[in-house]
Structure to design on (449 residues):
């Protein structure tokens, strides 16, 4: 009898131990079950990726990324998309002590498309759960690699970020040919460059010049495109000084989106602009070329969260005819506005998967700068797809459809399709969770082979 009891007790102990072991194994798997997400880091094994069942927004464990040192860490997953379609991806984010490596930065906790510059706004500091939204156009892509990231494309970050409740919906492209353009005139610059403080102001004369050229830009876009493009514009005078600039070898100093975000975002996030001009003065008659530039008067092809972004620099000499209409000196003063805007269409056309002549390649196609009108004929043929390709004899330039492929805004989702359950499915009960663990294990084995 005693022996039998002992066996019974041993059996019970065995079962209890088995349950405990299974529970520990299950919890470990649960903490490390990232469903279909892969992990990526700039500096390998520096960041910790975990599922967190304590700090979470809803029923499911959150996805936690912590980086003790500066890193670029991301959970990402390849998803299928329909080409030429607007998408909105959202998630809930909580952050703790998130700091970026550079002072002026677009990194932090964010949503992005891996290996591109496309990203949402970023969250830094310590914040309770909030919703993060990322809008993009699939353009010519069938798949994209969506990432939930602590870091960024240009800069790193450290701290902790929790991501939860991923959603995705597809919307409808807005196919009219009206582009809403915002022109921000930076009235004051107050920057420190190489230990020197530089202050610059814009004059009333400058504001007049910009006003005239914005109106001329609107008219020229219509004429040059042969009525395929309509521009609506609004001008803003930014009084608060611009305090930071960006620098690269090619251009010298310039204004990147991150430099003006704090000055213009309250306007941009309220309106659905399709293009942004930022107008600056970097020197004047008295302190010529106070801020060093490598000979540019305009810079384009930049991107403010999916919206084309250009710089226009006023000439140091206020008496210059560069931006002044004069029938015997300059009849195309808005040329730089047209040029910089076209860089956005040039870039879009490539991203939609089509060939496009480089905007700077005019001489190769036989177009030269002319007295009075500059490169007017080049822009006209460029915008009408009327440039002769000498090799093929075909007409090349901006395709008509590019005038209707505009940046994605929230209004593209008035009628939308929720794709969340197809793309970001979380296990909904114990059995599904258990099953997902085995598919995850199966995957990690099959990946090694
Ligand atoms: Zn250019």
């Amino acid at each position: 009898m005693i022996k039998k009891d002992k066996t019974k007790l041993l059996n019970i102990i065995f079962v209890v131990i088995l349950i405990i072991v299974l529970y520990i194994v299950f919890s470990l798997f649960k903490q490390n079950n990232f469903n279909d997400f892969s992990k990526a880091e700039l500096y390998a094994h520096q960041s910790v990726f975990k599922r967190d069942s304590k700090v979470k927004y809803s029923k499911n464990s959150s996805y936690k990324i912590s980086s003790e040192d500066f890193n670029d860490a991301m959970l990402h997953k390849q998803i299928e998309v329909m080409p030429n379609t607007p998408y909105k991806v959202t998630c809930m984010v909580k952050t703790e002590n998130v700091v970026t490596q550079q002072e002026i930065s677009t990194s932090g906790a964010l949503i992005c498309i891996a290996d591109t510059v496309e990203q949402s706004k970023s969250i830094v500091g310590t914040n309770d759960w909030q919703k993060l939204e990322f809008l993009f156009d699939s353009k010519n892509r069938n798949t994209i690699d969506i990432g939930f990231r602590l870091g960024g494309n240009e800069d790193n970050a450290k701290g902790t970020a929790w991501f939860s409740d991923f959603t995705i919906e597809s919307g409808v492209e807005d196919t009219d040919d009206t582009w809403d353009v915002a022109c921000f005139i930076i009235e004051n610059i107050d920057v420190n460059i190489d230990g020197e403080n530089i202050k610059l102001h814009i004059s009333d004369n400058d504001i007049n010049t910009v006003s005239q050229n914005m109106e001329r830009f609107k008219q020229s876009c219509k004429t040059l495109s042969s009525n395929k493009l309509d521009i609506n514009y609004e001008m803003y005078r930014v009084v608060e000084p611009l305090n930071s600039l960006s620098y690269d070898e090619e251009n010298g100093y310039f204004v990147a989106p991150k430099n003006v975000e704090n000055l213009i975002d309250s306007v941009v996030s309220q309106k659905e602009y399709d293009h942004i001009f930022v107008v600056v003065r970097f020197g004047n008659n008295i302190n010529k070329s106070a801020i060093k530039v490598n000979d540019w008067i305009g810079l384009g092809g930049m991107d403010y969260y999916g919206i084309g972004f250009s710089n226009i620099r006023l000439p140091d000499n206020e008496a210059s005819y560069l931006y002044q209409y004069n029938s015997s000196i300059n009849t195309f003063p808005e040329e730089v506005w047209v040029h910089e805007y076209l860089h956005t269409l040039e870039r879009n056309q490539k991203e939609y998967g089509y060939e496009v002549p480089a905007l700077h390649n005019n001489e190769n196609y036989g177009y030269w700068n002319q007295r009075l009108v500059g490169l007017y004929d080049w822009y006209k043929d460029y915008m009408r797809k009327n440039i002769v390709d000498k090799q093929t004899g075909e007409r090349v330039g901006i395709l008509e459809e590019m005038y209707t492929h505009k940046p994605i805004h929230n209004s593209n989702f008035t009628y939308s399709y929720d794709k969340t359950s197809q793309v970001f499915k979380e296990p909904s009960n114990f059995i599904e969770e258990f099953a997902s663990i085995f598919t995850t294990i199966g995957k990690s084995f099959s990946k090694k082979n």
The CA atoms of residues 81 and 132 lie 20 Å apart. The helical segments are 2-31, 204-224, 257-268, 335-351, 376-383, 420-423, 430-448. Residues 2-31 form the longest helix (30 residues).
